[in-house]
Design the sequence.
């Protein structure tokens, strides 16, 4: 995901490099002395229970960044990627999100290499239903046959006999939604999936799915400056469904200036403020900030100790919202 001038963006990749560059373009100064000394998840962030079965700390880790350019191939420095995953667990992170399309396959294999045998409390969530044909290229495939193969492949790569949380990566426009979901339900009944989640969906999708099976989580793009899915967050909050936001620092010029100003007041980074906003937005939100840097990982974890005032929360909630290309 990356920023595009004028408040537009494409959902591919995001890194602190892009954030710094965009802030500089808009005359925003970043704080270089983030909050915290000892790095660890703070109790103030609390916990969240997925599907009434799996309880995790309310700040996870999104592993997508641990691949090559365009989310294709292995990372440039596999040892560094492994160090990031191991450090995340050391810091108390016990929810890791991945997908078979990240790499493809590379991301799941790297998680197993870094963390297997897994800690007892570690929850690994993966996804299926999107395929890769090259760097930055995504292709729908949520056919029953593909999803069966995808689940079996993820089980093998992750070295597990069941997947804690399996998410439909995105509904396939040429495959009946119920057919895709039905395949996941079959795999759940076979003991290969514990909990079922959805990604990149509307409230209508969630409601249709819940008529067939309990839905543990929904993963959509969301940030303080990108609230297209506000109504889905509200729906999930009302119904006890975890909402997992991706792209937590999507922001245009005005939003970047606001978040930088608040970050400066707290001796924090803009990402820490953006994560603190998400944690306050709803008790059902489970942020999964991703990074390929141990230092940035530690900064993200320390966001759990940052408390925004009501005025600061409201100011960020009122910034100009982004418009996305589709």
Sequence:
């Amino acid at each position: 995901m990356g920023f595009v001038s004028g408040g537009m963006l494409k959902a591919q990749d995001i890194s602190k490099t892009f954030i710094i560059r965009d802030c500089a373009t808009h005359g925003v100064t970043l704080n270089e002395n983030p909050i915290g000394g000892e790095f660890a998840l703070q109790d103030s962030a609390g916990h969240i229970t997925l599907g009434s079965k799996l309880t995790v700390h309310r700040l996870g880790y999104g592993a997508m960044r641990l691949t090559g350019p365009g989310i294709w191939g292995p990372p440039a420095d596999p040892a560094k990627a492994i160090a990031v995953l191991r450090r995340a667990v050391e810091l108390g992170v016990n929810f890791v999100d991945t997908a078979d399309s990240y790499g493809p396959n590379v991301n799941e294999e790297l998680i197993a290499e870094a963390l297997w045998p897994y800690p007892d409390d570690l929850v690994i969530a993966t996804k299926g239903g999107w395929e890769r044909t090259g760097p930055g290229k995504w292709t729908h495939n949520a056919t029953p046959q593909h999803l069966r193969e995808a689940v079996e492949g993820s089980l093998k790569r992750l070295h597990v006999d069941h997947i804690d949380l399996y998410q439909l990566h995105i509904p396939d426009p040429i495959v009946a939604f119920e057919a895709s979901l039905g395949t996941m339900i079959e795999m759940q009944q076979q003991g290969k999936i514990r909990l079922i989640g959805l990604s990149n969906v509307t409230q209508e999708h969630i409601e249709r799915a819940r008529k067939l099976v309990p839905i543990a989580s929904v993963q959509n793009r969301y940030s303080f400056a990108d609230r297209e899915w506000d109504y889905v967050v509200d729906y999930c909050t009302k119904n006890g469904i975890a909402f997992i936001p991706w792209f937590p620092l999507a922001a245009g010029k005005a939003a970047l200036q606001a978040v930088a100003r608040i970050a400066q007041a707290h001796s924090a980074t803009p990402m820490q403020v953006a994560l603190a906003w998400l944690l306050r937005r709803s008790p059902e939100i489970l942020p999964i900030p991703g990074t390929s840097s141990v230092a940035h990982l530690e900064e993200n974890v320390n966001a759990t100790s940052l408390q925004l005032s009501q005025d600061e929360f409201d100011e960020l909630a009122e910034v100009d919202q982004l418009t996305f290309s589709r």
The longest strand covers residues 193-199. The chain has one domain: 2-317.
